[in-house]
Design goal:
By secondary structure, the chain is of the alpha+beta class. The protein has one domain. Helices cover 36% and strands 11% of the residues. The protein contains five helices and four strands. It has a four-stranded mixed beta sheet. Helix 1 links the parallel strand 1 and strand 2. The protein is globular.
Length: 142
């Protein structure tokens, strides 16, 4: 498990996934001191090439990349997000709790289950017209 990310942190999320978009909107509204930048990978203008990660891999699980280009995936991406908030907040506390061995194992299992059912969740509006929200449903291609 990596240490505290070097902020600002780029969060790559699927804006066509209603749950994913709602979660990111929730974080966007919270005070994070501009330590988090949100990038919708379902947007037509998103180009994964500069990051060296395929669109399929981005779609398979949430990614975050810090200022030092360290890549966080899945639960580690959430931990990086939560650590962007002050330690005295519930998100800061979650960022610390998810590092504990038992909690981390449960969080990874929960995220793995969510990632497997995400393709069946409702889509946000017409965001999936070009089919990008279906990319990566069978696993990552790194």
């Amino acid at each position: 498990m990596a240490g505290i990310p070097a902020y600002p942190l780029k969060i790559f999320y699927d804006g066509s996934c209603s749950v994913c978009a709602a979660e990111m909107e929730f974080y966007r509204r919270k005070e994070h001191g501009d330590r988090i930048h949100f990038i919708d990978i379902s947007a037509a203008e998103f180009d994964p090439a500069p990051y060296g990660i395929t669109l399929e891999a981005f779609m398979h699980e949430m990614h975050a990349i810090d200022q030092n280009n360290h890549v966080y995936r899945g639960v580690e991406a959430f931990r990086a997000i939560w650590q962007a908030f002050p330690a005295s907040t519930r998100y800061g506390l979650l960022g610390a709790l998810v590092t504990l061995p038992g909690v981390n194992s449960l969080a990874r299992l929960a995220y793995w289950c969510f990632a497997r059912i995400r393709k069946y969740l409702p889509k946000s509006g017409d965001d999936c017209k070009d089919g990008t929200c279906r990319i990566g449903r069978n696993g990552p291609h790194r």
